[in-house]
Amino acid sequence: MTNPDTVARHYHSGHLLERISDGCAALGLTPPIAHDALAPVDEFHIGGRLATKPFVEALNLSPESKVVDLGCGLGGPARYVAANTGAHVTGVDLTAEFVDTGRVLTDWSGLSDRVHLIEGSVLDLPLESGSMDAAYMIHVGMNIADKAGIAREAKRVLKPGGVFAIYDVMQVGEGQMDYPVPWASSPEQSALVPPETYEAALKSVGFEVTDWIDRRAFAEKFFADLAAAQSQAGGPPPLGLHLIMGENTALKVQHMVRNITNGLIAPIEIHARLPA
Q1: Using 50, 70 and 90 to split pLDDT, how confident is the model at 1?
Q2: What are the distances in angstroms from CA 266 to CA 20, 214, 216?
Q3: Torsions phi, psi of 272, nearest 5?
Q4: Average model confidence (pLDDT) for the chain?
Q5: Domain residue spans in the chain?
Q6: Is 90 exposed, middle or buried (0-12, 13-18, 19+ CB in 10 A)?
Q7: How far apart are the C-alpha atoms of 261 and 263, rounded to whole Å?
Q8: d(CA 148, CA 202)
Q9: Which residues lie across from 89 on neighbouring strands?
Q10: Tens-digit pLDDT profile for residues 200-220
Q11: Quick one: CATH architecture of 4-273?
């Protein structure tokens, strides 16, 4: 069972906003800053914006949609949703530093009228029942053992006919994982399970699973392209996920790529819907 306090400490640095501000300054970026310019640092998941775009398109959102982002991090996907669909997005995350920093980035990008970030648990969402048209979760379930609890809360806040999409790293093979990885410094902070466990949790509370997409090939190409780009540039850019992951970023990414290549884990999308 993962501990919420240790998970929050894993992601906390105390200097995140300062690091991002310095990165923006190095690139000559000053507020207002387009949300796209922040994508290298605020899309903390495999594939970044390249993964977010098709994932969001599948939700078929409109300016009238009310959406909840479970485990929103810095709010990058939430800002993308708001800017590209007009939907109103509420993001909920356990890590106070992510929420505080994300609010500043939302102000910088001029999206505070449509994106609201709140500190809280995805197992106890600070939202009214039946208040949302859609919900999504991106690279969050790896830290939460109670997959059924996630499904129950998503169902509770969704209206009838609401959709819930998940893009998580999931267990797809047996073997010894290498740690640290981006979401966990040790096995005690990780809650990896197979896609079938997610599907069973969703169905147990009344969701119909409508799609299941294996993104392993996409991930392998993404990391190969990233390594080539950084090698050519001589290192990471001023804005990047290393600002979040810290000094051992390279080791975390190396381990994750090795775990994917060895067939232990893969990024998987699961899309589900409630009966109308």
Answers
A1: low
A2: 29, 7, 5
A3: -140, 160
A4: 95
A5: 4-273
A6: buried
A7: 5
A8: 7
A9: 67, 115
A10: 999 999 999 999 999 999 999
A11: 3-Layer(aba) Sandwich (3.40)
Q: Is beta strand 265-273 parallel, antiparallel or unpaired with respect to 158-171? A: antiparallel
Identify the DSSP state of 176: P
- What are the structure tokens assigned to 49, written together? 């914006």
Backbone angles phi, psi at 232, to 5 degrees: -70, -35
CB 117 within 8 A of CB 78: yes
Residue holding tokens 């939202």? Answer: 127
What residue spans of 58-187 are helical by DSSP H? 76-85, 96-108, 147-157
**What is the four-CA torsion angle of 124, 128, 132, 136, rounded to 10 degrees?**
-10
Three-class SS state of 264: coil
**At 259, which helix (H) or strand (E)?**
helix 249-261
pLDDT tens figures, 81-103: 999 999 999 999 999 999 999 99
In the beta sheet, which residues pair with residue 138?
167
Q: Which amino acid is at 180?
A: P
- Rounded CA separation 181/233 (Å): 24
Handedness of CA 59, 62, 65, 70 (dihedral sign): positive
User: Are 88 and 66 contacting, i.e. CB atoms less than 8 angstroms apart?
Assistant: yes
pTM comes to 0.95
Helices (H), 1-64: 4-11, 16-26, 39-42, 48-57
pLDDT, tens digit, 9 for 90 and up, residues 168-201: 999 999 999 999 999 999 999 999 999 999 999 9
Locate 210 and state its tokens.
């409508």
| Inter-residue contact 63 to 86 (CB < 8 Å) | yes
Asked if the model's pLDDT at residue 152 lies above 70, the reply is yes
